[in-house]
Amino acid sequence: MNEDDTGPSFEGVPLRTPLFEAQHSERYERQQLIKAYQDRFNCRLVVLIDQLMPYGIPLFEEMLFDADPSLNLHVMLRTLGGDGETALQLAQQAQARCQELTVVVPDKAKSAGTLLTLGAHHILMGPTSDLGPIDPQFRGSDGRLVAAKTIIAAADHAFSEIESRPETLPLHAALLADTTAIDIQEARNALSHAEIQLVEALSGNPDRDGVEIDSVRDLLSEALIGEPNDHAATISADHAISLKLPVVKLDPQSDQWRMIWQLWIRYFNMGPVSVYEGERASQIFTAASAI
Q1: DSSP string of the chain?
Q2: Which fold has domain 24-138+194-286?
Q3: At what angle do helices 255-268 and 25-41 cross, to 10 degrees?
Q4: Is 209 exposed, middle or buried (0-12, 13-18, 19+ CB in 10 A)?
Q5: Of 130, 184, 131, which Cα lies nearest the Cα of 153?
Q6: Residues 18, 24, 26, 29, CA torsion sign
Q7: What does pTM read for this prediction?
Q8: N or C, which end of the chain is more exposed by having fewer CB within 10 Å?
């Protein structure tokens, strides 16, 4: 059995039929770009574009199941956030399959995405990259993720208004109709747990010792958890470097950034999709909040 650019073949006859090849040609082109990046930088590259939720754990594992642990692993990550515990699990899976873990951020890696980057040896960022506050999120009644700080702020504002102006009770009761006292308490609990997750994320890098973790913990806790009031707040490469994160700020004219951008923009052009893709594995499905 031989293997060429069109896949495995027997006696020169491709196993993919012409129609199948045409239907999936864009996937094969992306995987060729992934392979070119791997060859150029001597690593394994996988792409994760999605909310970070427990269902993504086996999909991420699918991309790593045959990874060579002697190679470095690069994870191209684009996410608006998700579940912090899932982020920690993904970082653990990645670190178990490589010498060094690099998270590539072509666009946004917010909240749980930022948490995932904290477990990496290196974070590659360019002119369009940004991280964000570590703000736990919950899925609202409309399916969207809502930040814990947003839930708490809305409840605190309503209680304050009702206390000072009791006649506004019906209005605020209607505005918070889908939010229970349990929801508010869970948001407070999650926010208080965020600092524990931050330390766990930093500890996810096996080459980072306790002294190094202690040296950045308070700085990161204030910058990523305590200080930001807006879940959409941005942390640029320069800001991340000032926070002592292991950021490599790529020159936009460099070959590496050009290859990253050439691959990323193909996913961006696909619209709102969730992506778990590598040189061999490829799971793509529509997800309105992925992009």
Answers
A1: -EEETTEEEETTEESS-HHHHHHTHHHHHHHHHHHHHHHHHTEEEEEEES-B-TTHHHHHHHHHTT--TTSEEEEEEEBS-B-HHHHHHHHHHHHTT-SSEEEEESSEE-THHHHHHTTSSEEEE-TT-EE-----EEE-TTS-EEEHHHHHHHHHHHHHHHHH-GGGHHHHHHHTTT--HHHHHHHHHHHHHHHHHHHHHHHTSTT--HHHHHHHHHHHHIIIIIS---TT--B-HHHHHHTT--EEE--TTSHHHHHHHHHHHHHHTT-SEEEEE-SS-EEEEE-TTT-
A2: 2-enoyl-CoA Hydratase; Chain A, domain 1 (3.90.226)
A3: 160
A4: exposed
A5: 184
A6: negative
A7: 0.81
A8: N
Q: How many CB atoms lie within 10 A of CB 61?
A: 15
User: What is the Cα–Cα distance from 206 to 212, expressed in whole angstroms?
Assistant: 12
Q: For 47-88, write each residue's pLDDT tens digit.
A: 999 999 999 999 999 999 999 999 999 999 999 988 999 999
Q: How far apart are CA 242 and CA 244, in angstroms?
A: 5
Look at the block and give the residue holding tokens 């690069």: 74
Beta bridge partners of 14: 9
Q: Residue type for 47, please?
A: V
**What token pair was written down for 89?**
């699990």
Per the listing, tokens 């873990």 go with: 101
Tell me which amino acid residue 174 is.
A
CA distance 69 to 73: 9
Backbone angles phi, psi at 132, to 5 degrees: -155, 175
CB 48 within 8 A of CB 79: yes
Q: Quickly tell me which residue has 């947003």 as its tokens.
A: 150
Distance from C-alpha of 63 to C-alpha of 279, rounded to nearest angstrom: 9
